Amino acid sequence: MGSHLILRAVGFVGGLCGLAIFAISAPPPNVIVFVADDLGWDDSGPYGNPSVKTPTMDRLAADGLVFDRALLTTSSCSPSRCSILTGRYPHNTGAPELHQPLPADQVLVSTFLRHAGYYTAAVGKWHLGEAAKVQFDRVWEKSGPSGAENWVEALQDRPRDRPFFFWLASYDPHRGYEPNTIPQPHRPAAVIVPPYLPDTPEVRADLALYYDEISRFDHYVGLACAELEAQGVLDNTFIIVISDNGRPFPRAKTRLLDSGIRTPFIVCWPAGLRRVGARTSQLVSVIDIAPTLVDLAGLAPESSFQGTSFAATLHDASAHVRDYAFAEHNWHDYQARERSVSDSRYTYIRNSRPDLPATPPADAVGSPTFRAMQRLERAGELSPAMRDAFIAPRATEELYDNLADPHSLHDLIADPAHAAALHRVRAALDQWIRDTDDQFYDDITPDHWHREHGTRLNPGRRPAGY
């Protein structure tokens, strides 16, 4: 299956770790992609949250490489998963809206890896439709509340004479929440409330339950890694931990701000990383995962992929991957159409439906957090950032400096000091729209849920596969 660049630390030379590079015929790495469902990028230990219990992710980060500027192509569950597995943007997969099944003509990275001799399996949450299932050797769908209960069994059941690719997808920390999902639940007093949510008892309790499911996800990732170690294959297994979109709270999931499209992105591969415990600020998109896996398997790049391999970053954390990352927001419970472009500093958002408020997903509308925010909104007690979900009409364009303003609280669209940056990112988005044939259609899927109550409506037209 080809030669692979193997890097090994060979001792200390003048106080620095020497590095030997051997181009040898070596087995390609096994691959596991762990996918959380609605995990905010900064809600784990490796990304600066000391309150949520994530010991497995902490260990993987300490033994791996952490990407600090990793972005999704959308902030909606099934379109995000379809995009990651095909290496294509949501509007190019034929499944850009929530619950739309991936068309049969779309090729998953699993198919290319199968051609290279890999055994492939998807375990847990699926959410890609029926047609795509034939592109895995086996699909194990949800078996319990977490969706991760069969991960270890699936790893044990694999053929031992082939490299493997596992897509291990959890339902955690997706709503709804129940108490006592972990032995030691998080205390509401210890959670970190983002500045765009009100710091009330209801919000803290809601976040604590969300933290509990993050820890449950982390626990199952740990069990899977322990099984790999017991099998003696952990060293040459390329592991990625990501989320499909931001936390299921207002101004996060379904938004194109960092809180919606930025993802944790932890890579661990003991046999292949140049050095462990490193971080990189290089921009990477989840659309780059499929090209990277094909690259690591020793295969030529596939023409269907719209991303680029980040394999060079595994050897040099400063290696440049891309100038821009692009994202889109289409129907997810409510009609919407937004596009964004991000570079290493800025995010620019263009909204084609400024007449509509930025209503969070329907399950978040029914949450204790949103109920508290509605009460405070009626009382006139929300800050401008906290009012985001209630404002209509909204701006047609937004610009944020993610370095100076990590929570995207200050829109710089009219600030002359950032005019040059605005011109540059506008042009980049326009070019991407042309390059990817991103056409605007007036026939946008209507709301399926009430924006204030979260109750189901009967709009008459549903997205395909709903």
What are the main properties of this structure?
single chain, 466 residues, alpha/beta, Alkaline Phosphatase, subunit A, 2 domains, 8-stranded mixed sheet, 4-stranded antiparallel sheet, 12 helices
Describe the structure in your own words:
- By secondary structure, the protein is α/β, with parallel strands linked by helices.
- It folds into two domains: 27-322, Alkaline Phosphatase, subunit A, CATH 3.40.720; 327-435.
- The chain is 25% helix and 18% strand.
- It contains twelve helices and 16 strands.
- The protein has helices spanning 55-62, 77-86, 90-93, 109-115, 151-156, 201-231, 258-261, 289-296, 311-315, 362-365, 368-378, 419-435, and strands spanning 4-13, 16-24, 30-36, 65-67, 70-71, 119-124, 138-141, 164-169, 237-243, 266-268, 278-280, 284-285, 325-329, 338-342, 346-351, 397-401.
- The strands form four sheets. It has an eight-stranded mixed beta sheet, with helices on both faces. It has a four-stranded antiparallel beta sheet with strand order 13-14-15-16, covered by helices on one side.
- A hairpin with a 3-residue loop joins strand 14 and strand 15 (346-351).
- Helix 6 runs antiparallel to helix 11.
- The radius of gyration is 22 Å and the shape is globular.
